Amino acid sequence: MRWAVGALLGISLNVAAAEPPLRFVVADSWAMPMVQLDRGRPTQGILHDMMLSLATRVGVPAEFHVLPRARVQNAMERGEVDVRCYAAQSWLPNQSGDYIWSIPLWSQRDLLISREAQPPHVDPASLPRQSVGTVLGYTYPTLQPLFDADHLQRDDARNQEQVLEKLLAGRYRYAVSNHWTLDWFNQRLLPGQQLHAVTVLQEQHVGCYVRNDPQVPVQRILRTMLRMKMSGEIDEIIRLYTGSAEDNP
């Protein structure tokens, strides 16, 4: 699949070289299998491959802008980038600007995880007062009331992989991770070292949104996303990195 995406890109770039690139924003807090960042540039991962294929099928070059998560929405509003993927409207309740959302493309599951095997379900509200590993700038609606009450405290790291590394090192007993990153992280560990999901905190559908600008081929982008989802291409990209297809949103 990755070879096919690269070959398709090579063919189309000659045709589309004169057209403006499609500018994607990439949060520097993403980790594999979503995106691999090498020297500040995305090189592989589920979202990298999907966005690269999207631009190729639209017929324009892809351009990636890696930014801190706190600057992502501002870059969209200022017209510095055109497309943001792996987002939900509930994450942006005060979104300003003119955007058009895609259909749901993925399912996002936030998990409370631990180094130790636990009973099938752990209620965060029943935990004693302690720090929980989180990603800087991420919101966790299920845990926010406990953070507000100072029952639990955030221990922020720059990206999701760093959160898991700190949990593995014993910096705290619990952390939050999405299911993709947890599975990817566990692949490199022996069975006795692997981290365990102890409860599902939240599950929601996520997609992409496009800046509604006459210079951006908005409808062509949205139609292409729909075809990629309906044809199974997006699920095939997920399977390439995780070994299993995504549950359909």
TrEMBL record:
The keyword Signal applies. Residues 1-17 form the signal peptide. The keyword Signal applies. Keywords: Signal. Coiled coil: none annotated. Belongs to the bacterial solute-binding protein 3 family. This is Amino acid ABC transporter substrate-binding protein. It comes from Pseudomonas koreensis.
